[in-house]
Design goal:
With 174 residues, the chain is mainly α. It has one domain. It is 84% helix and 0% strand. It has 6 helices and no strands. Helix 1 packs antiparallel against helix 6, helix 3 crosses helix 5 and helix 4 packs antiparallel against helix 5. The mean pLDDT is 92.
Amino acid sequence: MRPLTPSQVRVAIAESVVLGLSSVLAFWLTSDVLARVYFDSRDSDLLGGMWAALSTIFVSRATFRESYTAGISRMSATLISFVICLIYLIFLPFHLWAFGLLIGISGAVGLLLGRPGDATTAAITTAVVLVVSAISPVAPWQQPILRLADTVIGVIIGVITAWLSLKLIHPRLR
């Protein structure tokens, strides 16, 4: 491995700082600001903040095009999970067998829609939504809606900060 140039070190540090700050922004907006609009429970608010931060991290890539594509992928996977979990949770509560079945269905839908890269993320999202629906004090069917909102916030922040970083910070570091 070659040693990094001073320019590469500056870019790496700047990108890491931007990633950390954008994750804090996503977490704060979701766990504190959004919680004022809709309060579920503090645990759910913290989970929502974490979920938004993870979405921000997920879309942070080397180029704006890559970040945008990752944002589309994250939203696609979340929408797959959203539909499956919402339909199920409107009628039935969490159950171990449904957990496995819905994770499998989420992955299959991603594959059948021609989005194999989204299948795993859809399955992970389904697992989170179902478990949170079992431990949250509010109606289980609300969890897919809340996690969709968290994801939207995180993806928007991630894509915007990727663009700002590439347009405003990178040119000054090279």
